[in-house]
Design a protein that fits this description.
529 residues, alpha/beta, FAD/NAD(P)-binding domain, 5-stranded parallel beta sheet, 32% helix, binds ligand NA7
Length: 529
């Protein structure tokens, strides 16, 4: 049966762009379908003030092309959203990707035709495309979560979601603003919105931990050094669980004498960034060790925030690093400003949104603009918005009713020739996304090449292999404290979503080794036909 393309790739973020490039290199015909009008995925949509990557720019970048690494100049330790988007556009131009990307088009359905062994893909623009493979590159945090708060449509002012921000920006100057949420997006945007707005009211359901970024312009001498040693740095990063090249102190927090422990925390705090959680190796393994880090950060909040009552509300009660740790610039300091009010809504949900603002705990709050910094239906949200049907017409959303199950986070039983880049069951959001994406893309491209060489047209995981992998993902999650709190990692932010720890927490090196073993053993765990 002839097809329009060997592969349809869904999404033109970093995953989709590199997938297209690799497939072209191997002589496959591919079409990328992208909802936005440009490339960049996460960095195309998340344009809220202060949006930045919390992995350092020299590490959050592609490594497949040495020329690209050498020619691109990052300007700050943590790149801003506009800079990352410029980078994505540069990559698209440099590798001439746009001619195979269909923009402003959403895939509505992908149905596997078992008689012809092809995927039949339909879009909201009326396209009907047949392809041997469907490869999703839809991002893990790309389906914004708009909470079902009563009266949301009644608000008379503009409502913005951080994950789908207006492209022309928003002028808050002279305005009063209400923000719901205190996750990473809020923590990055609140300090900037507070500088612009006449008054900012922050509605906090759960206090969050954040570590200072200590962002700064990159020193040209440092950049030159990185450029001279990129391959070594990338190689080292792949030996680290998070795929980020920072030093992990292998000592136990609780077994380290208090003065020394404090010195090490202070050192990491002064350096800034996510490496704080690598101060000791057991911070996410036992409560007592975790408490040493949590208490350290709690004390920092009390040092910074002048009003003791506000400091108390801002102080997280849960485990540090259980919800994703945030990285900030001036977050807690912002609550010392006279034009910022913090409202604790931890004990009672917001009653309703009103025409003038919102009502919480029996009190009315008025503001001109409402910002929903309420996160995403993570990891499965974007995938399940598409009507994906495998063998027997079974829908993926039914197959995953009890939570996502996959083989290697890449493939699903009953869904032949479907690959999910950074899908649930892969390290993805627990790692530096760029190397994780590249590893997935390389795996898929090599797999398609191997299938073509053997004249195989259908690949599908075997139930037993999938079950074993799901077991491994679950066992890894059970060892850490990370699976114990109500985070988006377990789907707890979306009412009704099954509680399953979705990413693989065994670390990037173990994951890469598992994939390599599968390939070495002739695509072990897959049925090839
Ligand atoms: P997050 O981290 O999911 O944060 C969402 C925030 O919104 C969080 O504080 C939530 O409180 C809050 N929220 C969500 N729904 C409600 C309702 N109904 N009422 C009050 N508060 C609510 O999303 P972000 O966009 O900040 O960050 C996502 C990731 O992007 C981040 O981890 C980085 O990887 C980059 P909760 O904590 O659920 O009580």
């Amino acid at each position: 049966m002839s097809t329009d393309f060997d592969a349809v790739i869904v999404g033109a973020g970093f995953g989709g762009m590199y997938m297209l490039h690799r497939l072209r290199q191997k002589g496959f015909a591919a079409r990328v379908i992208e909802a936005g009008s440009g490339v960049g995925g996460t960095w195309y949509w998340n344009r809220y003030p202060g949006a930045r990557c919390d992995v350092e720019s020299v590490q959050y970048s592609y490594q497949f092309s040495a020329e690209l690494e050498q020619e691109w100049e990052w300007t700050e330790r943590y790149a801003t959203q506009p800079e990352i988007l410029r980078y994505a556009n540069h990559v698209a131009d440099r590798f001439d990707l746009r001619r195979d990307i269909q923009f402003e088009t959403r895939i509505t359905s992908a149905v596997f035709d078992e008689t012809a062994n092809v995927w039949r893909v339909e879009t909201n623009k009326g396209d009907k495309v047949a392809a041997r493979f469907v490869i999703t590159a839809m991002g893990c945090l790309s389906s914004p979560n708009t909470p079902k708060i009563e009266g949301l449509a009644d608000f008379k002012g503009p409502t913005y979601h951080t994950g789908n921000w207006p492209h022309d920006g928003v002028a808050f100057t002279g305005k009063t603003v209400g923000v719901i949420g205190t996750g990473s997006s809020a923590i990055q945007s609140i300090p900037i919105m507070a500088e612009q707005a006449r008054h900012l009211t922050v509605f906090q359901r759960t206090a969050n931990y954040t570590v200072p970024a200590h962002n700064k312009p990159l020193d040209p001498a440092y950049v030159a050094k990185v450029k001279a040693h990129y391959p070594e740095m990338r190689k080292r990063a792949k030996t680290k669980p998070a795929g980020i090249d920072f030093v992990i102190n292998m000592a136990s927090a609780i077994e380290t004498p208090e003065a020394e422990r404090r010195r090490l925390f202070e050192e990491r705090w002064a350096y800034g960034g996510l490496g704080f959680m690598a101060s000791f190796s057991d911070l996410l393994l036992n409560d007592e060790s975790n408490k040493t880090a949590a208490d350290f950060v709690r004390a920092k909040i009390r040092e910074v925030v002048k009003d003791p009552k506000t400091a108390e509300i801002l102080t997280p009660k849960n485990i540090i690093g259980c919800k994703r740790l945030c990285v900030d610039t001036g977050y807690w300091e912002t609550f010392n400003r006279p034009n910022v009010t913090l409202v604790d809504i931890s004990d009672e949900p917001i009653e309703r949104i009103t025409a003038a603002g919102l009502r919480a705990k029996g009190q009315d709050y008025a503001f001109d603009c409402l910002v929903l910094a309420t996160g995403f239906d993570a990891m499965t949200g974007a995938l399940l918005k598409v009507d994906i049907r495998g063998r027997g017409g079974v829908a993926l959303k039914d197959k995953w009713r009890e939570g996502p199950k996959s083989y290697l986070g890449l493939t699903v039983v009953g869904f032949p020739n479907l690959f999910t880049i950074t899908g649930p069951g892969s390290p993805s959001v627990l790692t530096n996304m760029l190397p994780s994406i590249e590893q997935h893309v390389d795996f898929i491209a090599d797999c398609l090449e191997a299938l073509r060489a053997r004249g195989v047209s259908v690949i599908e995981p075997i139930e037993q292999a999938q079950e074993a992998w799901v077991g491994q993902v679950g066992n890894a999650a059970n060892i850490t404290l990370r699976s114990t709190c109500s985070s988006w990692y377990v789907g707890a932010n979306i009412p009704g979503k099954p509680r399953v720890f979705m990413p693989y927490i065994g670390g990037l090196p173990a994951y890469i080794a598992a994939c390599e073993t599968v390939v070495k053993n002739d695509y072990e765990g897959f049925a090839l036909a």
